Amino acid sequence: MAGNTFGTLFTITSFGESHGCCIGGVIDGCPSNLRVDYDLIQQKIKERQTNSLPYTSSRHESDDVIFLSGISNKLTTGAPIAFYIKNQDIDSSHYEANKGVLKPSHADYTYVKKYGIYDYKGSGRASARETLVRVVAGCFAMMFLQSKAIKIKAYTTQIGSIVYPKPLTQILPDADINDLHCPDKEIYQSMLNELKSTRAQNDSIGGKVSCVIENTPVGLGEPVFDKLQADLAKAMLSINAAKGFEYGSGFQSAAMKGSIHNDLFTSEFRTKTNHSGGIQAGISNGENIYFSVAFKPLASIGQNQESVNIQGEKAIYKGGGRHDVCVIPRVVPVVEAMATLVLADHLLRFNAYKIH
Amino acid sequence: MAGNTFGTLFTITSFGESHGCCIGGVIDGCPSNLRVDYDLIQQKIKERQTNSLPYTSSRHESDDVIFLSGISNKLTTGAPIAFYIKNQDIDSSHYEANKGVLKPSHADYTYVKKYGIYDYKGSGRASARETLVRVVAGCFAMMFLQSKAIKIKAYTTQIGSIVYPKPLTQILPDADINDLHCPDKEIYQSMLNELKSTRAQNDSIGGKVSCVIENTPVGLGEPVFDKLQADLAKAMLSINAAKGFEYGSGFQSAAMKGSIHNDLFTSEFRTKTNHSGGIQAGISNGENIYFSVAFKPLASIGQNQESVNIQGEKAIYKGGGRHDVCVIPRVVPVVEAMATLVLADHLLRFNAYKIH
Amino acid sequence: MAGNTFGTLFTITSFGESHGCCIGGVIDGCPSNLRVDYDLIQQKIKERQTNSLPYTSSRHESDDVIFLSGISNKLTTGAPIAFYIKNQDIDSSHYEANKGVLKPSHADYTYVKKYGIYDYKGSGRASARETLVRVVAGCFAMMFLQSKAIKIKAYTTQIGSIVYPKPLTQILPDADINDLHCPDKEIYQSMLNELKSTRAQNDSIGGKVSCVIENTPVGLGEPVFDKLQADLAKAMLSINAAKGFEYGSGFQSAAMKGSIHNDLFTSEFRTKTNHSGGIQAGISNGENIYFSVAFKPLASIGQNQESVNIQGEKAIYKGGGRHDVCVIPRVVPVVEAMATLVLADHLLRFNAYKIH
Amino acid sequence: MAGNTFGTLFTITSFGESHGCCIGGVIDGCPSNLRVDYDLIQQKIKERQTNSLPYTSSRHESDDVIFLSGISNKLTTGAPIAFYIKNQDIDSSHYEANKGVLKPSHADYTYVKKYGIYDYKGSGRASARETLVRVVAGCFAMMFLQSKAIKIKAYTTQIGSIVYPKPLTQILPDADINDLHCPDKEIYQSMLNELKSTRAQNDSIGGKVSCVIENTPVGLGEPVFDKLQADLAKAMLSINAAKGFEYGSGFQSAAMKGSIHNDLFTSEFRTKTNHSGGIQAGISNGENIYFSVAFKPLASIGQNQESVNIQGEKAIYKGGGRHDVCVIPRVVPVVEAMATLVLADHLLRFNAYKIH
Predict the structure, then answer these.
(1) What is the predicted pLDDT for the residue at D96?
(2) CB pairs under 8 A between C and D
């Protein structure tokens, strides 16, 4: 495969550039006869959209999804579901101003070296706009998972220095959640302040998203290489700006003793603790799956930066343009979508071998 | 694919159980006419072997690799390279003693639920012994990478509370390295003490491995899903006991500002800093690639633990048997091997599209 | 994979239904910096189009290709190339007339059983219209192959009882070819008559297409399973109405002796004869590759036929609607396209392993 | 994938050279808890073995299968099943005599050009001995299919000029079958004579195998590319010496009219005729699946042949060595095995999407 298809049995093939006419995808392997939940699609798109909050890009897009195939009478047909979303509010002026100068910590250099084509008009294929395709595909995976009562929800657990301190191991009541997807009101205020002050500095800032999956049946995951956590890790690290992944006890486990870390069984095959993060030996064990993903500060900032041009000569990359201060909260539905795609794929693989 | 094959063009298919007759693998897609470096294979196997240090299992295995195909006159032929390593020192007495009782934080429960077969004689397919197959396969990938001057080296950077504090961003002189693969003499001593005291407590302990890759050509990685870091993350999380992965600035980046984090270009397309960890937009940028992997404390400890039997009734899982105190240092060559396999695979994919 | 993606490194993902809004595809793995030959695309589409000849469907479609991504300044960028073609002249009246009755020798029954959805409005996903996607994708593969001087051309060698009697082992001058792609003028006239008389009988008729590939480099094909002929066979049998595939001496070889069949080497590693059809042990040997594909008579005829309805009760399937008398000549560019896709894919795989 | 793995969910990875120490394979994705039918394995191996008939090679091999993994208490465990079979009776004298001279219509030239390695000791990886791996793997697929009552049987329907004249559309009583797998006693005698006279001429001869599959559930096959017949075609053309594939009405359909060819439905969704060969629109329709495979005369003959050496200079390839006169009947169980693997794979894929 050439890199733009994800999944084994439930697959999404992604296409489109941020500054082309559209982005889109083709979902293949979505089971037939699922009722298409258009409200879910609109809700998830909205969560990912540029909005009126002070910390997001001023680019406006309506992001209507145009479906081309695979749906009949609001039901999936089992055929490939193709869709696209137009790019409407394209303003290349900022990119024109930096034409020929490589953007630091961004795709310019590696793309021009790999593909032999210099695309100065925004990051093209490498833009975060591509993740919208994943969100739409994730909704179809979610329709499938919902038919099995599986639930997936992601939260903002860090923005810069503001950290939600507790491990997030279960889904919270919807009422507690705000437009930052932060699970705590006070921390939410601090995060808003962090975003505002970062914006005031013409800077960007990193963050962390944590995700919980409930009601996974026991048995998902295909050792030894396609362990459930391995496919989740790949899914998460394929998201723009992601820098790290941990599940269950994660990096903290490196400092722990086995006598503390081991999850003791209780009767009915449940465990007292859940350091394992719902996955044992690469296979879901029925406990909640939870994991976190770290995101770097976005490369686009409002400050001039030292750089070179495509000839390799010193040049200044000018700050400006319309950009988010932080990949969060817009990446929250993307994390959910990728987790959903992994779960749907593994649920189909699990079905395949359940022959008795 | 059914989960036991890794890679797209350079592939390893793994087989065997820890308490069966052998473990082994089939490498497919290894370029022909590579000289087989048997010394490298012996060295890497030795690094992974149970040895005389106080913190490793007392199980002794000679681990001679028997090659069945794909090599002629000490050269790879381009045909699949099949190999196996016999399991020689099998002592199931500990497992007999716990027959019918599920081992906490281990594969017993998920395997019996997934496959419908209860394998009480050690963890079978889920044993860390399986990783030896990866080490052997990684050596062939390394022979290929060495022909392109690419270097890969992993280090122990944490055992329990003892942490190597600096980011490891380049390969160190061999002379500085000890049998723990720790890059610092004093920290090495502290780590040894941590291992000894853990053993004295009949307990196990977690750790962290950091890996550096040098001389990677610009252009490896296939966005948007098969980004180089995504495939590295999958590779690492497919290793037994791995709980987290981060590359470049990793989880620290969540607290950083873009103005600090951005790697500014210098002339000749190099960067002043390397928070990107050698990968930009999913594609290698020619700087050193570096990443870390967290490992949990092993589930096997010398203490009795509360559990249930396979009927779901309360039971005691007895401590004992022969087990490592820590997955480190034996997992260090496994991390190297998986990184090597990812790089070799992506180098072949890179070659494929270099048509001009 | 879920069945709608073809290829390993050069891939096409197909979507769309004949009576939906459009059909389309996503090409992934097309090398960058190929000049897009829009004339070639138009020519090949035209060859496949419904036209004014007496033997083709009266459905009219302009078949303009709308490209959504992957092309910049008329060059491929290395990103996925998404495209679609609108369905414009949809007339469901014939299908309405047969609503609920299963069409004999067609997709109705197997699709409704497999996907649980009854799509009476034409064959939907199973329509020959889907093959237009392959033709467009094949043009991009062709642009790549042309950069290596590889040539592919298919011919009509049988329509019903009219058979082109000689093996077609090399590409003919363009001037000799007519709108049936038949390599002989007299046989062309007989074929036209066969088509006319079949139409007069409200019937359909089968045929055969033969294809030649010239200038293939030695070495394409990946034994033991992905032999070049194996992937060609799969490609051809994935075309609607295809019933058989043979290459080189084909089914005739079953009656031959080795002393006659063996292709003796001459100096310069060429062979005197080419019963091998340009492929030896699964790998191209530099001689011309040639093969034939048999196609059944199309299921759509102008006669009433006994059938059952979706409840399984006896019913009459009424003849009529707009249909081709024969899959030929419209399938000729489809055969070419699929051959081109296989060659492009194997050329990339060949490149991957050419490391020295 | 690198060419030596077949299948999507039920996979076989093949390894080994005919003149190396062994051949073998790894089956991955075989469902767990299947009882291993060792008698079936022995029977199928025996059918493929060199034996005492006058038309087969005098090479003797006991062909005991050594299983390395994936089986416990005579049950499949769901883990990869690795196995190998030793090569015992290696006599390279014939190959020594022709060292440096390219064997006509054989693998020598393409292998040396592709892999850069000249393996004069028999055809190595390209030997028909490799197909034994497929036979063993096919037995495990068969154990799975038998649990669903699916039956697969192949027959010899042509040797040279002797042709079994009727289409073979159903499985015959076992009693009627002889050591040539020919379904007719008189034709069997003629075939034996054809083989004897060919041997007397120091020549080889081609043939045809026909295969029938009964009790396939409706719904197997994944359009539009992984149609059931497409995967069968690939499977068959991946067998050494195969030159053509046709299913149902096959090449005959090219001369037929739709009014004759269409399979009319009767009540209960069965069809009066079965020109479709049990597959409609790429999906099994519940009728018997039947297909034929043409095989060329083997390249190895007892006569001297004009050739060139590896420098490209004229040379004589000397006749001799131990070889079969015809690939039939030994290829009959190989055809069965490959069909079985395709069916098992598609049955698992079918299971995957059966979610309601």
Answers:
(1) 84
(2) 366
In the numeric block, which tokens belong to residue B95?
Answer: 């497992």
User: D82 vs B3: CB contact, 8 Å cut-off?
Assistant: no
Q: Give the number of other CB atoms < 10 A from CB of residue B113.
A: 18
Confidence category of residue C122, pLDDT binned at 50, 70, 90: low
Strand partners, D306: D316
Q: Are A69 and C32 an interchain contact pair (Cβ–Cβ within 8 Å)? A: no
Q: How confident is the model at residue D92 (pLDDT cuts 50, 70, 90)?
A: confident
Spell out which residues of chain A touch residue D5, defining contact as CB-CB under 8 Å.
Answer: none
Residues 6+ apart with CB under 8 A from C249: C256, C261, C275, C276, C277, D243, D296
Chain D residues in contact with B70 (beta carbon < 8 A): 15
A contact chains, 3+ CB pairs < 8 A: B, C, D
pLDDT tens, position by position, A326-352: 999 999 999 999 999 999 999 999 999
Distance CA B68, CA B128 (A): 23
Which of B170-174, B319-323, C90-94, D143-147 holds the top average pLDDT?
D143-147
pLDDT of residue C314: 95
**CA D42 remoteness from chain centre:** 17
Distance, in angstroms, between A180 CA and closest chain B CA?
16
Name the residue ranges covered by the structural domains of chain C: 5-355
- H or E, element range at D14: strand D11-16
Contact of B13 with B4, CB cutoff 8 Å: yes
Which of C21, C29, C115 is opposite residue A2, by nearest beta carbon? C29
Listed in sequence order, the DSSP H helices in A90-184 are 93-97, 108-115, 131-146
Residues in chain C, overall count: 356
Taking residues D116-137, report their average pLDDT: 88
Cα B75 to Cα B71, B144, D24, D311, distances in angstroms: 5, 12, 20, 21
Q: What is the average pLDDT score of chain C?
A: 93
pLDDT score for A60: 56
Question: For the purposes of burial, counting CB atoms within 10 Å of the CB of C62, is it exposed (0-12), middle (13-18) or buried (19 or more)?
Answer: exposed
Whether A64 shows a pLDDT value over 60: the answer reads yes
* B329: preceding bond cis by omega (within 30 degrees): yes
- Sign (positive or negative) of CA dihedral B229, B234, B235, B239: positive
3-state secondary structure of A311: coil
Nearest CA in chain B to C350: B352
Minimum distance, in Å, between the CA of residue D291 and any CA atom of chain B: 27
Contacts of C114 in chain A (CB under 8 A): 78
- Residue-wise pLDDT for B298-352, tens only, equals 999 999 999 999 999 999 999 977 788 999 999 999 999 999 999 999 999 999 9
**Are residues B15 and D115, on separate chains, in Cβ contact within 8 Å?**
no
Cβ separation A312–B110 shorter than 8 A: no
Neighboring chain B residues of D124 at a CB cutoff of 8 Å = 77, 79
User: Which chain B residue is nearest to residue D2, measuring alpha carbons?
Assistant: B29
Is C9 in contact with B352 (Cβ distance < 8 A)?
yes
Report CB contact under 8 Å: A77, C124: yes
Chain B residues touching C144 at Cβ < 8 A = 355
Q: What is the pLDDT of residues A159-177, one digit of tens each?
A: 999 999 999 999 998 766 7
Nearest to C33 among A26, A82, A116 (CB): A116
The complex scores an ipTM of 0.97
The single residue listed with the structure tokens 């559309």 is D169
Q: How far apart are CA A164 and CA D23, in angstroms?
A: 57
B-chain residues within 8 Å CB-CB of D13?
5, 13, 26, 28, 80
Average pLDDT over residues C123-148: 94
Residue-level pLDDT at D323: 80
CATH topology of domain B5-355: Chorismate synthase, AroC fold (3.60.150)
